[in-house]
Every structure is written in C-alpha cells, then in structure tokens.
C-alpha cells in the first residue's frame, strides 16, 4: 500500500505544529522520520493514526483520500501503530491482549481464545517474532511486549506500521532483534514508518530518511548519509556528536558507597550490596537497562531513600543518614532521572526553578524573606550562560521543550561549587543540539575536579562521557570496565551475562 | 494525591505569569463575572417562577388563552417587578446605606480570613475542609479568654485574639502533622476533626465555667468589652485586620521562603523533596497557618460582634470559606474580592428577605450557582461561545459552497 | 377535657385562641368553658378580624434552624401567620443562618418599621435585649427564654417579654400515662441536646413515671434520663433522623416499649424506630397526629407546647397596647402547655383517663409540684 501525504498542516491556536508536510511511503519500505523532540513527528503520526484531525492537507492511501475520525478508521484502512508506551493489559495473556477490542466469540458471547492463540502463533512464526501466546504480559520482557504490540497491529491486517521511538526502552541486543524483525516485515511487504532521533539506528535500518524540524520537512537523505550530515539537518547547524575529551584517571575517592542495600516499599530487594567509588576528576558511568536498581541506588546516594544497609561517604564523612537538604548542602549536585517528576516544578517559572534547591542559601534569602532581585538576576545570568531558550524568565518550565527543561535543571545544579555530580539520564528526551551542550558541561565539571557519576541506559552516552564504566544488572554492579570495552560485550553484561562467560 | 481531586486540578495555577502580565488575568476575571451574571440570571428566573402575581397571571393565561396579550403583558410586567424588587433590595441591603455597607464588611471579614486559610492550604496542595472546626475551637478559646479573665483593655483583646489564633493553629496543625507522619489524607482528617471540634465545644459548653451565670443553656457569656474589637465609625477594627491578613498571606506566598516551599510542595511534592524541602515541615506549617486564619475568622465573629459562644457561633463560615477561596482562585486578592462578594450577598440577602420577602435560600442558591459556574469554566465559556461557533460554522459552509 | 376525643383538646387550644385573639371561624366549634384559663385578658373584643390592626407590623426572627425546622421555629412562626390571619396585621420575617447574624437580623426588622418583633430561641437572648433597650417603642417577645436575675426578679425592659413553657407539667402526665401503659416495665426517652428547654420534658416524664411507681407500687424503669445526674441519651443534633432512630433503637433493644423523643425533627427517627419495633411513641411540641400524622397510629399522645398561641398573644397585646414585660409561662393552668388527645389506637380506658385529668388538676392546684426532683 502506498501512503501519500500532501500539504498536511496542523495548527493549535496560533501555533503551527505541522506546516505543509509532504511525504510518500512506498510499499515495503522502511521510512525513517528523524527529528528532535518537539519537531512535530508525533503530531504528524497522530494525524496518520486518526487521533488528530488535520487543519489542512490530505492523506492518500493508494491514491484515495482518507478521512479518519479515529484510530478505528486508520486500523481498518491498514495503518497500525506501536506507541512508545505500550497499551497492554499486564494480567492478560499475549493472545488475550491481541484479541482485545475485537474479540472473536463462538456465539452466545463465549470467547474464542483458541482462534486468537492460533493467530498469534501464525504471525509469530511468519515474522519470526518468537512470542508465546499463553505468556502473561507481566511476565515477559519489555522487548517481547513490544513484539506483542507489533502482533496486535499485524493482527489488524496493518500494511503500514508506525513505530514511535521503539528503541527507547530496549537493551542493545533487543534493538538488534527489533531491527531484524523490521527487515523481515519489510521483506514480506509491510511498510514501516520508523520514528526516532537516534542516528545510528536510522542508518542501520532505513531505506529513506525524512528529516523534520520545527514542523516542516527540511529534507530527505539516503541511509548512506553521514551521522554528522543528518544531525546538521535535524538541528539546523553543525553539531559535534562526540564530545572531545581525554580519558582520565581520577584522583582521590570523593564519593564512596559500600555495601549499599535498598529494599523498595513493596519489599523487593532492588539494590543488592553495591560498592563503588567515584574519584575527583573522573566520570564513572553506570550502564544498565532501566529498572535494574539504578534509580533506587542514586536516590539513596542523595538521601531520598534511606539505604537499608551500607554506608555512603563523602570525602570520608559518613552521609548515609543525611536527607537531601544536607546532601545538597554538602556539595552534591543531583540531576534526577525523570526531570518532570523530580527535577522541576512545571508550573513554576524558569526563574523560580533555577533556585529550587538554592532559595534557602544566603545568596537568595534573608531570614524568612526571599531576595527576589537576586533570584531574578540569577535567572538572567543562567539563562544566558546555559542558553536556555525561554520567552521570559517568568515562563513556566512546563511550557519549555524537553531540552530546555533539562538545561534549567543542569544550570541550577551546576551553579554552585560541587564535590560530586550525580546525573541520571542527563540527556533523555533532549534534542541533539542540547545533548552536545550538556555533555560538554559535564566534562567541564569533571575537568574542574568534581567527581561525576552518570547513570544512563544509552550506551552512546555512557561511552561519550565515562572514564570508567560500571554495569548494573538485577540490583548489582556486575562488572566495572574501561570505556574501550567493545559495545557487544557491554551489551551482554547489561543483559545479565556474567563477565566470565562473556570474556 | 492521585486518590482525590487535587487542588491544582481545580485552581488553575496562573500566578507566575499573571503577576507580570495583566492580560493573562482577563480570562479568569471574565469567567468569574460571567459566572456571577449567569447565577443572578438563574436567580431572577427563580424569583419569577415563585412570584404569586406571575403565577396567577400565568394561570389566567392558561384559563383564558383568548386574552393572551393582556396576560402575557401582565406576566412580563409582574416578572420585571418581582426581579426589580428582589435585586434592588439586594443591592440596597448590601451597599445602599451606611449600615448596609457596614453589615457587608462585617460579614465579609470572617469569610475573607477563613477563605485565606483554605486558599493557602490549596496552594500547598492540601484540600482544607476543616476551616469549620478550626474556627470553632478558635471561637471557644477566644471567647473563653474574653469572658473569663478580667484584664486591662488592649491586653485583654490581644490575649483573646492570641488564644483564638493559637487554638485554630493547633487544630489545623494537627491535620498537617497527621498527614506528614502517617500519610492520613487531609480531606478525611479535616472532615473528622470538624466533628470532633463540635463535640469538644459542646463538652466545654456543658461545663459551669463556660456557661452564663444562672443558666444551664449551652451558651457562654459574651466577651467582656475589654476583649472586643474597638469600633471606629461603626466598623470594628477586626475588619482592617482581615485586610492585613490578606497582605500577610500574599507576602508569605510570594515573598517568603516558606511560601516558595509550600507552592513547590503543592505543585510537585517529589521535586520539592528532591530539592531538599521538608514536606513534613511544609504540611504542618501551612495547616497551622490555615488554622490560625480560621481562628482569626472566629475572632471576627466572637470579638468583633460580641458573640456568645455556642456550637453554632461560627455558622457555616468554614464551608463558605471553601467556596470563597475557590472563587478567589486561591489568591489573596481574589479571596478578598470573593469574600466581599459573599459578604455583600449575605447582607443583601437579609435586605431581600426583610423588605422584598424573598426567601433566604435564594441567596444560597445564587452563591452555589456562582461556584458551580466557576468550577465549570468550560460550561460558562461555552455560553459565551455558542454565538461565535455558529458564525464560524456558517462561514465554513460558505467556503464549501464556493469550492 | 372530660372526654378523650381529639376534638375537645382542639377546642381547648382554640378556645384559648378565641379569648386571646378574637373571632376565628373554627374557634366557634370550640369549648368556651375554658376561656377563663387564658393567660391574659384582652380587654377589647374585636369583631372584624381582618383589618383590626392594618397599620401594625409584626415581625419575627428565627434562630439558625429556620422557619421550616418542623420544630419550635416553625410552631412560633405559625403564631405570626395566625396573627396575620386573625388581626390583619402586616408582617415581615427573617431567617438566621448563624448566630453572628442575629443582631443584624433583628436590626433589619427594626429598619423595616416593625411594631413588634418576636425572636425565637434562647440563642437570641442577648441580641434581643440589646435591641429592645435601644428601641423602647417596639415590643419584643422571645420564645423559650425569660430574663431573671439570681433572685428570680424579672430583668427585662418594659418592652420585652419572655415566653417560656413549663412543659414539665404535661410531660409528667405523659410519663404517668407511659408507666401505666407499658407492658415491658421499661420506657425510654432521649433529647437533642442537654439544654434546659429539652431536659425539662425528659425530667417531667421521668417524674411522672416515678409518681406512678409510688402510687401503684410498681417498678417501671425510665431509660435515657437520670433525674439525679441530670444526664441521659442525646442525639447531639436536632436534624438527623438517623441519629434519632439509632438512639431509639438502642432504648428499645434495652426493653423500652414506649419512646418519648425530645429532639425536634431528629425525634421523628425515634418514632420510626418505635413503629418498626412495635413500640409506642409520645410526640412533643405539637400534636403528632397532626404534624407527624404518618406516626399517628403508634402515638399514645403528645406533649403540646403552645408557642404559636403565646406568640400570637404577644403580638395581639402589643397591637392592642396592653403589652407588658411580665414573663409568660405556659402551664397546664393557662393552657399554654397541654397533653394532646390520645392517639386513635392508644386504647386508654376511662379510669386511666380520669386519673390523668385528676393529676392535671392536682398540678394546677399545686398539690403535685412538677420539676423538683
């Protein structure tokens, strides 16, 4: 099926999210849609999937205009979508999830589970998806859940499959597997629209690349284009992808964690006897697939979670019992993993967020009163220094782009003398231009002698920043390796292979 | 938090941008005025359908359809008269004379104070349903000091106020403490503590020391003159105190470290905790302040109006305060304006009752409708937009025709 | 009241109204013999009611219960309505939402040019006397309150009359009746709040039971009121029928087969509990067979508190210029309080009926003193 988009435009009030987009997807092609966060990729896909109605323009399927009133219409027309966040019922089996919404019955309302099972098995075999129809969703890994989503779309006879940032939640191995599946789908005639901002993946799997910036198509490129070229198209200027830095051996240990154990509120042991140290002037990268205890580990370092056992020392001083207020005051900088949840107050202005953990210092307050002038001056200064793109310092942070929101958090944490910087997912959901900026600032902080701890699920980021890499799996640090360890080996470690086996 | 409607869902957080940009206030002001106008319109309709002359004329109209014009004219005339009588009495009763104005202000003062208590808690993300109980214990404490101890004028007043504030603050702080230490939801605890407050007051009212001499009724003596607010030009000095309280709340919210913390905790407790703020401290402090303001509301009544304390002495001020804070969008200025409006409606309602014979329930209906329309801004805006949308639709149709 | 028929009692009340107020049509059905017991002699004997005092404005302020409280505000308000019907006076009224409004509301009636203002309930006592002192030209009455000092002297100004009701007297009769009728040997009562206007009923009731026990050597027990401790069962609320029902069911579960609820509308829950459990009820303030007729089947009788009559009388006096500040106390003697006719199913035999009448006379004579423990 051939999909053609002509002059598609979507306006929200005075804001134009998509401006005269033209796009052609040929049958059996993997078409990559590349763009920064907020470039308008999701708006475009939501119109394709019937979730939004275009303001202008049309969508043609095999030359015939469409008028989707909802996802149902899009599905019926052969367009399926796998969302970034899965839409699966955890306590149902794979087959049950696939049949959900269009259940087959044997009359009298009795569910025909067998038919669904059979369908899952067939699709699984045909596209080599390796999915067990009777497994419960909550029991299977994220990568397999994603394949269930793909089966759901295929079961609906999708000829065009939209994959929205499908690799964000996957391990490197799973990403490779997904790419294999995409090639298989393509081979059997399914078109794929692959939305991503990761250049490597685009080059690996794409047939054609369309780059979107600020709601407009800025160009197309073949997969042979270099990453630098693609990045430049995305951002609109040339971008330095790899931060130039020399690997360093750090000085004395500034932060030392010994035998940290954390039990979460549900009683699960999530951090198991973890020990490491971060030296002044080095970056220790903690690599690992999401959900292997990194979140709880760094929360315990700041004092947000009290470790159930173990000891945390800052320059030899025991800070295990400190709360966040004391830890911050001691010189720990903290960039939380989920900025909108823990990093800023969305309804607060940029000005206020820039002092969210500094308002109580002498610089910004006197007795019970805030020094508004100092806070405003600080905001002007930081906005300029960190190139935060905001209309005014009074703009609520929630209305900034992801990259600028992260810059607000980074600017705040970097605006005081630090002994330790703990940054989790410092560039998640951040555009390429901002990634470059944030990485440079982190390296600069390191070069000033700060002990830096980076937690990231992105191997690119780990490699770009780390002087040493610790891999976390199932609540433990399974290995600490040097940054010249090959990608594949690191990937295996992240997937739980023990170092001995992988060696 | 996810379990209950959070205040921020109801109170749009327009504050930061609004401070700099007057135009961003306009939609809020317009919606509020529209809500008031709509409520008065519905009120007028109720006045009309409950007016006997109108009803009679309508019956005649049904009985003698031949004289349609005559009776229809009567209906219009009587309707207009009834509405005019009611609403002119409302305006006269609220602002039509010195005493009317005084009454409006006297009734506004406690609403403003308790409304501020609800508003400041809203801003910290807490739904304070407990202003009623906080005011009640405040009234008992202020009243007790006021009628028991014979202190020099001035000192006596200050002592009585301090007692009222302290009792209210204690009652409110209890809620914050329960929430901070055990996670007990403030909606539940405040509602329960309202009941507890009433029974505590009834318990004390049954004691000899709290009763009038020679009486077994559950009513205390009124406070001594030395413990009541002095009066200037008919107005007791508690009223300016309400304005001072509003200013203080504004300062706390906008200019103080505590206000920064409480707004942050209200908007995003997780980020606040990560930034090293103590939610425990904020919850206790803000509920204590809320209770203190409710206690001040009680002082307005007991010490401002020389009231004997009974279990009903504060009326329903604690619940009206919620609607006042809601109407005032949980801002100090908004709360003052909403308090004045409700005070005026209350005083005007008395005028309507006394001289136009309109039942007092009408005022309560109007107040409730205002809040309903404010809480459903989409509904109100749709009233305003129906016309526009129609024109837009027709223009689209024209376009289509051209194409 | 030699007969137990309802009509006779209506006659008594009506007769009272007749003497006091003049010429109501339905009064004529009444029994004129009781007219001498009327509390105040109105010298003028008007004939044309409707425009007797067209320029007189009678006004009323409720307490926070409002005029539709099915309780003392409403009964008092009936007095105002009757005055309008009987004397052609003008009227105005204000309902209070809370105590802080009392003073304002009374003042608003002053501003409306009222000639007489009746306030309802002891909660308004302070504000009423303050307004009365300020406006000596207006006559004030207050329901359920009288101004006395330590020595029992009346401290009200010349234009303020307290209207109180010795409801203990008819409650005594009700208690005696209940003790005579109980099968289980246990009767129960409960109140709204522990305040004198409520407990006076309960105390009189208990005293009546005690008297029955003394006279007949029986051992009928009263639940819900302890005369020594002056405490008992209360709903702490005059509104919640649920609470009334709960308290009554508790009493019934302890064996009570006659329930005497003194809790305003909350007491209706008590009657419901009695009905559900095959017990009897005795209603208060008004004749329950009229005001709560759905429970008439299970009512033995009602203790009537003639607030409407007293209020109307106060207005009439003020209009006629014969107003005095002498506190009015409704008694069995002046008919301000009384026992309602027995319920249709009460099945009171003539002996008991005669005994009740006899006791009533003894109370009027002072042979039996109600109220002293």
From TrEMBL, chain A:
Top-level taxonomic group: Bacteria
Domain ABC transporter, residue spans: 3-239, 255-499
Pfam family, one: ABC_tran
One example GO MF annotation: ATP binding
CC per GO annotation: plasma membrane
Alphabetized UniProt keyword annotations: ATP-binding, Cell membrane, Membrane, Nucleotide-binding, Repeat, Translocase, Transport
Keyword Transport: yes
Gene3D superfamilies named in the record: P-loop containing nucleotide triphosphate hydrolases
UniProt-listed InterPro entries: AAA+_ATPase (IPR003593), ABC_carbohydrate_import_ATPase (IPR050107), ABC_transporter-like_ATP-bd (IPR003439), ABC_transporter-like_CS (IPR017871), P-loop_NTPase (IPR027417)
Localization per record: Cell membrane
CDD domains associated with the record: ABC_Carb_Monos_I, ABC_Carb_Monos_II
Its membrane topology: Peripheral membrane protein
Protein name, entry field: ABC transporter ATP-binding protein
From TrEMBL, chain B:
Locations listed in the record: Cell membrane
GO molecular function, one term: transmembrane transporter activity
Transmembrane segments: 32-49, 111-131, 151-175, 187-206, 226-253, 282-303, 309-328, 335-356, 362-380
GO cellular component: plasma membrane
Domain of life: Bacteria
Keyword Transmembrane helix attributed: yes
Coiled coil: none
One Pfam family here: BPD_transp_2
PANTHER family: ABC TRANSPORTER, PERMEASE PROTEIN (PTHR47089), GUANOSINE ABC TRANSPORTER PERMEASE PROTEIN NUPP (PTHR47089:SF1)
Protein name: ABC transporter permease
Species in which this protein is naturally found: Nocardioides humilatus
TrEMBL record, chain C:
InterPro entries: BMP_lipoprotein, Peripla_BP_I, PnrA-like
Segments of this protein annotated with the region Disordered: 23-51
Ranges of residues in domain ABC transporter substrate-binding protein PnrA-like: 58-371
Keyword Ribosomal protein: no
Biased composition (Low complexity): 35-48
Keywords: Cell membrane, Lipoprotein, Membrane, Signal
Compositional bias segments (type: Basic and acidic residues): 23-34
SUPFAM superfamilies attached to this UniProt entry: Periplasmic binding protein-like I
Superkingdom field: Bacteria
Membrane topology: Lipid-anchor
One GO cellular component term noted in the UniProt record for this chain: plasma membrane
Name of this chain's protein: BMP family ABC transporter substrate-binding protein
Natural source organism: Nocardioides humilatus
């Amino acid at each position: 099926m051939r999909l053609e988009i002509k002059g598609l435009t979507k306006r929200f009030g005075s804001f134009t999210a998509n401006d005269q987009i033209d796009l052609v997807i040929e049958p059996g092609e993997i078409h990559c849609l590349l763009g920064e966060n907020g470039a308008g990729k999701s708006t475009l896909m939501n119109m394709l999937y019937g979730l939004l109605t275009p303001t202008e323009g049309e969508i043609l399927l095999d030359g015939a205009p469409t008028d989707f009133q909802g996802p149902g219409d899009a599905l019926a027309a052969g367009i399926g979508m796998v969302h970034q966040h899965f839409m699966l019922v955890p306590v149902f089996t794979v087959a049950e999830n696939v049949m959900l919404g269009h259940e087959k019955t044997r009359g009298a309302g009795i569910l025909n589970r067998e038919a669904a099972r059979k369908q899952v098995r067939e699709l699984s075999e045909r596209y080599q998806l390796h999915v067990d129809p009777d497994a419960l969703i909550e029991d299977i890994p994220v990568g397999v859940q994603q394949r269930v989503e793909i089966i759901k779309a295929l079961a609906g006879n999708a000829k065009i499959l939209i994959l929205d940032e499908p690799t964000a939640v996957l391990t490197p191995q799973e990403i490779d597997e997904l790419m294999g599946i995409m090639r298989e789908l393509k081979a059997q005639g399914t078109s794929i629209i692959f939305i991503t901002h990761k250049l490597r993946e685009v080059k690996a799997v794409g047939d054609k690349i369309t780059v979107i910036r600020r709601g407009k198509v800025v160009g197309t490129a073949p997969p042979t284009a270099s990453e630098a070229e693609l990045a430049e198209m995305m951002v609109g200027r040339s971008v330095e992808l790899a931060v130039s830095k020399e690997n360093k051996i750090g000085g004395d240990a500034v932060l030392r964690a010994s035998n940290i154990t954390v039990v979460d509120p549900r009683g699960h042991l999530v951090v198991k006897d973890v020990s490491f140290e971060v030296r002044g002037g080095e970056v220790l990268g903690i690599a690992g697939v999401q959900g292997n205890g990194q979140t709880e580990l760094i929360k315990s370092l700041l004092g947000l979670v009290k470790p159930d056992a173990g000891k945390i020392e800052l320059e030899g001083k025991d800070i295990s019992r400190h709360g966040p207020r004391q830890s911050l005051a001691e010189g720990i900088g903290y960039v939380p993993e989920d900025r909108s949840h823990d990093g800023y107050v969305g309804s607060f202005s940029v000005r206020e967020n820039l002092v969210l953990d500094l308002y109580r210092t002498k610089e910004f307050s006197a007795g019970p009163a805030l020094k508004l002038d100092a806070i405003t001056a600080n905001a002007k200064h930081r906005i300029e220094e960190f190139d935060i793109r905001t209309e005014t310092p009074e703009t609520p942070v929630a209305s900034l782009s992801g990259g600028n929101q992260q810059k607000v958090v980074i600017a705040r944490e970097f605006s005081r003398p630090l002994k330790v910087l703990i940054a989790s997912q410092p560039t998640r959901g951040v555009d390429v231009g901002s990634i470059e900026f944030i990485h440079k600032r982190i390296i600069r902080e390191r070069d000033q002698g700060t002990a830096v701890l980076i937690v990231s699920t992105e191997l690119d980021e780990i490699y770009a920043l780390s002087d040493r890499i610790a891999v976390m799996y199932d609540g433990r640090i399974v290995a600490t390796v040097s940054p010249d360890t090959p990608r594949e080996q690191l990937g295996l470690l992240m997937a739980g292979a023990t170092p001995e086996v992988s060696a | 938090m996810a379990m209950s409607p959070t205040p921020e869902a109801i109170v749009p957080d327009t504050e930061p941008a609004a401070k700099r940009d007057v135009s961003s206030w306009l939609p809020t002001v317009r919606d509020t005025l529209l809500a008031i106008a709509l409520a008065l319109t519905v009120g007028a309709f109720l006045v009309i359908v409950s007016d006997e002359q109108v009803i009679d004329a309508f019956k005649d109209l049904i009985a003698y359809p031949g004289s349609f014009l005559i009776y229809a004219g009567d209906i219009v005339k009587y309707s207009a008269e009834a509405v005019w009588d009611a609403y002119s009495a409302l305006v006269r009763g609220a602002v039509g004379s010195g005493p009317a104005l005084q009454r409006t202000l006297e009734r506004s003062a406690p609403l403003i104070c308790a409304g501020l208590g609800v508003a400041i808690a809203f801003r910290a993300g807490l739904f304070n349903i407990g202003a009623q109980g906080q005011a009640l214990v405040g009234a008992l404490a202020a009243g007790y000091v006021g009628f028991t101890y014979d202190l020099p004028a001035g000192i006596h007043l200050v002592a009585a106020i301090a007692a009222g504030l302290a009792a209210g603050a204690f009652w409110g702080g209890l809620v914050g403490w329960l929430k901070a230490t055990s996670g007990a939801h403030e909606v539940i605890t405040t509602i329960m503590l309202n009941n507890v407050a009433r029974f505590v007051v009834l318990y004390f009212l049954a004691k000899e020391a709290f009763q009038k001499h020679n009486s077994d009724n559950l009513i205390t003596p009124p406070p001594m003159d030395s413990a009541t607010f002095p009066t200037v030009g008919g107005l007791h000095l508690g009223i300016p105190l309400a304005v001072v309280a509003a200013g203080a709340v504004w300062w706390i919210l906008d200019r103080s470290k505590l206000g920064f913390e409480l707004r942050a905790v209200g908007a995003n407790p997780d980020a606040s905790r990560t930034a090293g703020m103590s939610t425990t401290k904020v919850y206790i402090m803000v509920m204590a302040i809320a209770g203190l303001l409710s206690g001040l509301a009680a002082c307005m009544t007991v010490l401002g109006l020389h009231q004997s304390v009974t279990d009903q002495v504060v009326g329903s001020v604690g619940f009206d305060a919620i609607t006042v804070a809601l109407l005032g969008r949980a801002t100090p200025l908004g709360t003052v304006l909403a308090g004045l409006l409700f005070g005026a409606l209350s005083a005007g309602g008395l005028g309507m009752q006394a001289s136009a014979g309109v039942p007092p329930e009408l005022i309560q209906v109007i107040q409730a409708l205002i809040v309903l329309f404010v809480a459903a801004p989409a509904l109100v805006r749709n009233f305003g937009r129906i016309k526009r949308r129609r024109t837009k639709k027709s223009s689209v149709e024209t376009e289509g025709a051209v194409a | 009241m030699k007969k137990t028929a309802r009509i006779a009692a209506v006659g008594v009340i009506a007769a009272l109204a007749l003497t006091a107020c003049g010429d109501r049509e339905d009064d004529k059905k009444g029994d004129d013999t009781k007219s001498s017991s009327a509390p105040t002699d109105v010298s003028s004997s008007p004939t044309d009611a409707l425009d007797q005092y067209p320029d007189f404005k009678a006004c009323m302020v409720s307490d926070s219960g409002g005029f539709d409280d099915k309780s003392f505000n409403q009964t008092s308000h009936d007095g105002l309505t009757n005055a309008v019907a009987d004397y052609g006076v003008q009227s105005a009224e204000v309902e209070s939402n809370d105590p802080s409004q009392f003073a304002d509301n009374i003042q608003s009636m002053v501003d409306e040019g009222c000639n007489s203002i009746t306030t309802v309930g002891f909660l308004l006592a302070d504000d009423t006397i303050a307004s009365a002192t300020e406006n000596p030209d207006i006559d004030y009455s207050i329901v359920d309150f009288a101004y006395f000092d330590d020595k029992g002297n009346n401290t009200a100004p010349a234009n303020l009359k307290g209207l109180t009701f010795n409801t203990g007297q008819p409650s005594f009769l009700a208690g005696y009746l209940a003790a005579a009728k109980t099968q289980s040997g246990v009767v129960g009562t409960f109140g709204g709040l522990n305040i004198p206007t409520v407990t006076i009923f309960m105390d009189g009731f208990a005293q009546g039971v005690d008297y029955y026990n003394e006279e007949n050597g029986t051992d009928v027990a009263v639940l819900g009121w302890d005369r020594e401790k002056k405490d008992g069962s209360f709903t702490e609320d005059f509104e919640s029928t649920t609470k009334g029902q709960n308290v009554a069911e508790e009493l019934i579960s302890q064996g009570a087969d006659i329930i005497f609820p003194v809790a305003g509308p909350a007491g209706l829950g008590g009657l419901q509990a009695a009905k559900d459990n095959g017990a009897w009820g005795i209603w208060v303030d008004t004749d329950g067979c009229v005001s709560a007729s759905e429970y008439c089947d299970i009512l033995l009788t009602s203790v009537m508190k003639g607030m409407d009559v007293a209020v109307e009388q106060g207005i009439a006096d003020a209009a006629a210029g014969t107003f005095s500040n002498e506190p009015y106390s409704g008694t069995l003697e002046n008919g301000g309080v009384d026992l309602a006719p027995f319920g249709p199913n009460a099945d009171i035999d003539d002996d008991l009926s005669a005994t009740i009448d006899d006791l009533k006379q003894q109370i009027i004579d002072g042979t039996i003193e109600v109220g002293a423990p």
